[in-house]
Write a structure and sequence with these properties.
Layout: E1 2-3, E2 15-16, E3 49-59, E4 65-72, H1 76-80, H2 86-90, H3 95-103, E5 104-107, H4 115-119, H5 123-137, E6 143-147, E7 154-158
Antiparallel strand pairs: 1-2, 3-4, 4-5, 6-7
């Protein structure tokens, strides 16, 4: 206890209780730091073009072999318009030729790719492109992003076969 001094004209000096500090166990706990929010997953842009390499290659009139190309995703229009083509109506097997002519955007150094180019490809290249078309459009992309279980380094793996007949 402590003594308070008497003021002039005040009554006798009295003992005043000392203020009591709150014990630590009764004090409010310090607010815990909020956990950092988990990073939002980064949305990857839709991939619409897919490079390929033909097994044999298209040989143009000058004898140049064209093997590297790019195929884009097909739209509903790409699949519907060939159905009106007279060649497809007479021979349904021609559908894939017309369709591939629409979705292949680049082949080697050719200025333009069309169904006339596709119909003059080797059968093995046509089969490869038909399979590649299915992988890209019906089954989705053929690569998946994964992480190494040992070092946590990200990388991509091929899910489908990259050559005709592989899986």
């Amino acid at each position: 206890m402590r003594r308070t001094a008497a003021r002039a004209g005040a009554g006798p000096v009295v003992d005043a209780p000392e203020p009591v500090a709150a014990p630590e166990q009764f004090s409010a706990p310090a607010p815990a730091a909020a956990p950092a929010p988990a990073p939002a997953p980064v949305a990857q842009p839709l991939r619409t073009e897919f490079p390929f390499e033909l097994p044999r290659g298209y040989v143009d009139d000058a004898g140049t072999v064209h093997r590297d190309g790019v195929m884009r995703l097909a739209t509903a229009r790409d699949e519907l318009i060939p159905l009106r083509d007279v060649r497809v109506q007479e021979n349904p097997a021609y559908l894939s030729v017309v369709l591939l002519g629409r979705v292949i955007t680049r082949l080697g150094t050719l200025a333009m790719v069309h169904d006339g180019i596709v119909e003059n490809m080797f059968a093995s290249d046509l089969a490869f492109l038909q399979d590649f078309y299915r992988q890209v459009n019906a089954e989705g992309h053929t690569r998946a992003s994964v992480e190494c279980p040992h070092c946590s380094e990200p990388f991509e793996v091929e899910l489908g076969g990259s050559r005709l007949g592989e899986s």
